[in-house]
Amino acid sequence: MSVLDLARPDIRALQPYSSARMEASGGRVLLNANESPLAPFGDEGLGANRYPDPQPAALVGALAALYGVRREQVLVGRGSDEAIDLLVRAFCRAGQDAVLVQPPTFGMYAVCARIQGAAVLEAPLAADFSLDAEALLAAVTPAVKLVFVCAPNNPSGRGVPRATVERLAQALAGRALLVVDEAYVEFADEGSVADLLDRHEHLAVLRTLSKAWALAGARVGALLADPQVIGLLRRILPPYPLPLPCVQAALRALSGEGRAQTAARVAQARAERARMAAALAALPGVRAVLPSQANFLAVRFDDAGDAYRRLLDAGIVVRDVRRYPGLADALRITIGTPEENDRVLDVLASGRNAAGEAALLKGPVLEGRGFAEGPAS
């Protein structure tokens, strides 16, 4: 069974839009796309008066080399979010098909499905946020066309063993497309599973330059998949998804010097993650620091709301994840610079002490001065 047999028949039969840039190659006098012949003010050689290539060859080549896949297995777009949306639109018929997710997990899988009118089925993670392959497979119904696995997981930070991914890829062949989201894999002990693509055409991998490569503002991501899947998604991809400045920023980051800097920064983030995990676990009021393979830590507090407010009052914004299943007492703290991390520790430690002192000192005189109106901030 071909992986395309899972896709929507109407998308497989769709005549895609053919842009002027796709139809013509070569030439120096470009009069086919109704562009301005003159560059805008301040262009400085960028060439922003011309539409960019739909799939910039240099960027596709650089990403293929980085991820160890063939060029025809790469689709670049606006972050991983665009690839998620394209997959749902290409494989899920409104009111008929479904996606399977493992909460707590990245919310865009469900959002894209619901926008498309596809059902969202759930196979929750275990209490320790590990993925149970057998439970997941038991939740797959004939309606499920896409199974999303976030590895490492967001927001818990837990990794997914390579053997588990292989087990799922084998079991889902002919049943659903397994989509492994590796947004944080650069920070993990285990590497990417992209090398499994040639063995499993029902496997796809999401990658992004937003995290380890520090290009969140450029919005550059990639889907790695069977060339048939890439070709299908190109049918519904907007004609010019990546702006020229974003492409250039990505190519600079992927240069030799850029790769060396990224490797050093990832090493620092991993070291800081270990330091922060130990330091946070030692603080009063911290119940637990969840094991993480990402660039963040999910931290359980006696009073997560109070910890959030104290950090915010100090100008530090962390992610409140209490709405996620199994994380009702948790905050997600991104690993920052060593100085930023020290500030987080200082605020949490001093804030806790201040709260304790206020409780001891609370009395009629202090209450009369307004010190008993609420918890210390």
From TrEMBL:
Class of the enzyme per the UniProt entry, highest EC level: transferase
N6-(pyridoxal phosphate)lysine PTM positions: K211
Any one GO MF annotation of this record: histidinol-phosphate transaminase activity
Aminotransferase class I/classII large domain: residues covered: 47-348
Pathway(s) this gene product operates in, as recorded in its UniProt entry: Amino-acid biosynthesis; L-histidine biosynthesis; L-histidine from 5-phospho-alpha-D-ribose 1-diphosphate: step 7/9
InterPro entries attached to this UniProt entry: Aminotrans_II_pyridoxalP_BS, Aminotransferase_I/II_large, HisP_aminotrans, PyrdxlP-dep_Trfase, PyrdxlP-dep_Trfase_major, PyrdxlP-dep_Trfase_small
Cofactor: pyridoxal 5'-phosphate
One BP annotation, GO: L-histidine biosynthetic process
Pfam families the record matches: Aminotran_1_2
Superkingdom: Bacteria
Catalytic reaction equation(s): L-histidinol phosphate + 2-oxoglutarate = 3-(imidazol-4-yl)-2-oxopropyl phosphate + L-glutamate
The keyword Manganese is annotated on this UniProt entry: no
UniProt KW keywords: Amino-acid biosynthesis, Aminotransferase, Histidine biosynthesis, Pyridoxal phosphate, Transferase
EC number from the UniProt entry: 2.6.1.9
Family: Belongs to the class-II pyridoxal-phosphate-dependent aminotransferase family. Histidinol-phosphate aminotransferase subfamily.
Listed PANTHER family: HISTIDINOL-PHOSPHATE AMINOTRANSFERASE (PTHR42885:SF2), HISTIDINOL-PHOSPHATE AMINOTRANSFERASE-RELATED (PTHR42885)
Self-association and partners: Homodimer.
UniProt-recorded name of the protein: Histidinol-phosphate aminotransferase
Gene source species: Fulvimonas soli
